[in-house]
Amino acid sequence: MDSPARIAMVGVDHWYSAIPLAQEIAARTDTELVAVADPDRDRAEEVVAKAGRGRATSDAEELLADPSVDLIASFTSTERNPAICLAAARAGKHLLSIKPVARTLDEAAEVVRAVRSAGVAFFPAESQLRTTAMNQQIRTWLDEGRLGQVRTASYSLWSSLPQGWAGVSDPGWFTDPERAPGGGWIDHAIYHLDQLRWLLRAEVRSVRGTAASLKYPDLGLEDYGLAVVAFDNGVIARIEDTWLASPGGGRQTMSLVGTDGAVAYDSLSGRLSLTGMGETHEGWVHLSPPSGRGSVLERLVATVRGEADPLATVDDAWHNLAACRAFYESTATGVAVTPAPLP
Fold first, then answer.
1. Which of 6, 13, 41, 248 has its CA 20 to 30 A from that of 74?
2. Helical H runs in 148-220?
3. One domain, residues 88 and 221
4. Are 36 and 54 within 8 A, CB to CB?
């Protein structure tokens, strides 16, 4: 495939990612934005207008059946995503999918089997942070053994309630238990689980979780979640994600602690902090982290063309969701839960 990859976007419920993605597709020379589909055609037209390319439609089936479309970017609400992924894979189209791939493991298993059977590329949206310069640098340090053996990790993100659409305070489908896979914990914890699996080159062995509605008792979904995650290489991680922050009051922190050093990041300072790691000094050194984010599209197109190995696959989507489902099972049972194995 030497000509630009022809991409259609189906659903824009994840608008915060869909809009910049559509703009990037339109701006690149190796991709072409064919169309944007959404049941609310006005929203599709807004995305197309911001991208400056493509056409708007409310007919997703038309795009899924279009033989000229090479890749489907599914940014619909979670309950609709499995059907879209199944239709795209069976039509031989590559996929860029929202997170998580499905609400349930039964739905996810169908997608896994369809993608494998079709032999198409599949990139889960929660894996996009693998492309950032900071995470790439941290993985290099880990692979070089600069931290020694990693023993513990901690990820935390305080976020405010999501917005159903840009500029709208109503969270919309994000807080509908019939449509969303969970609340404030899974909303961002799925990114953290993917980062840890990738950075540590390890899989989740067990999850013990606590969830609560601390700020929004009538929400119907948790606004707070805390997980203790054990990995098969012995690392114990703490993952806390919430919707408790006031607008503009979010904060993200991470740390990895090894036998020979540690690395940490705090969004309030914007600094990447290091200690140990074979340096002669004592204490912490605070640096500006490497900036920039690699292009998921660039890597996905290269993968489709056979020019690069996949950065992430449908198997990653399964493992990430399985760990999240284990968290929710643990919150209900009060015991640690082992994620379901890959089908």
1. 248
2. 186-200
3. no
4. yes
Pair (147, 272) in one structural domain: yes
User: Residue 280 has what pLDDT?
Assistant: 65
Q: For the chain, what's the residue count?
A: 343
Domain residues for the domain of 100 are: 5-120
Residue 207 pairs in a beta bridge with: 229, 337
pLDDT tens profile 272-293: 999 998 776 689 999 999 998 8
The answer to whether position 64 is within a domain reads yes
- Provide the token pair at 73: 């970017």
Q: 219: closest CA among 169, 167, 182, 165?
A: 182
Q: How many CA atoms lie within 13 A of 318 on its CB side?
A: 20
Rounded percentage of the chain residues whose pLDDT exceeds 90: 95
Classify residue 309: in a domain, yes or no: no
User: Which of 33, 51, 43, 34 minimizes the C-alpha distance to 11?
Assistant: 43
- Measured CA to CA in angstroms, residue 74 lies from 18, 86, 139, 239 at distances of 9, 11, 28, 27
What is the DSSP secondary structure assignment for residue 132, as one 8-state letter? B
For position 28, which CATH number holds?
Answer: 3.40.50.720
Residue 161 has phi, psi (to 5 degrees) of -55, 140
**Radius of gyration of the chain, Cα coordinates, nearest whole angstrom:** 20
